[in-house]
Write a structure and sequence with these properties.
The chain is mainly alpha-helical. The chain has helices at about 1-25, 30-70, 75-105, 110-115, 120-140. The chain is built from five helices and no strands. It is elongated, with a radius of gyration of 24 Å. This is Transmembrane protein 65.
Length: about 150
């Protein structure tokens, strides 16, 4: 029984020293690591921005042409409803996209302190902002294919 207690104490001391060493490791990650944080954060946002904008444009156009005149919807109201649809679809896509991207993109593990540094937060914000911007611009592609339609009567 005493040997078991000694092993438990040794294990607890080892865990505490490990936590202490991680807590004090707040060194700024290297530029390559910060770049990989930005990249791994940004790529899923490219997919999200693309799908969000593309679905919103297509859905908004269809809502306007199908229901716009009948329900008295403005173009902006149809776009808002299209945005609602694309946001709901985007929420459903978020987890599978992040899971797939997580398998492709491996980043160096960071300590808790390193993830809270302003440099790491800035890399994460920059990656997600740039990613969603690129995705939204690419998601405007359906505008190239839409033709002016007459409003259909439902």
């Amino acid at each position: 029984m005493e040997a078991l207690n000694a092993d438990a104490k040794a294990l607890a001391n080892s865990a505490q020293s490990s936590v202490r060493s991680q807590a004090h490791d707040s060194s700024v990650p290297q530029s390559a690591v910060l770049f990989s944080v930005a990249l791994s954060t940004g790529l899923p946002f490219i997919v999200f921005g693309f799908s969000d904008n593309a679905i919103m444009i297509v859905a908004g156009d269809e809502i306007e042409s199908l229901f716009g005149a009948k329900l008295g919807l403005s173009t902006l109201a149809a776009a808002g409803l299209g945005n609602l649809i694309s946001d709901v679809i985007g929420l459903g896509m978020a987890e599978p996209v992040q899971a797939r991207m997580g398998r492709w993109l491996k980043t160096k593990p960071l300590t808790i302190q390193q993830t809270q540094l302003w440099q790491t937060r800035a890399a994460r914000f920059s990656g997600s902002s740039l990613g969603v911007s690129i995705g939204c611009l690419l998601g405007m592609a359906p505008l190239l294919f839409l033709t002016q339609k007459e409003k259909r009567k439902v």
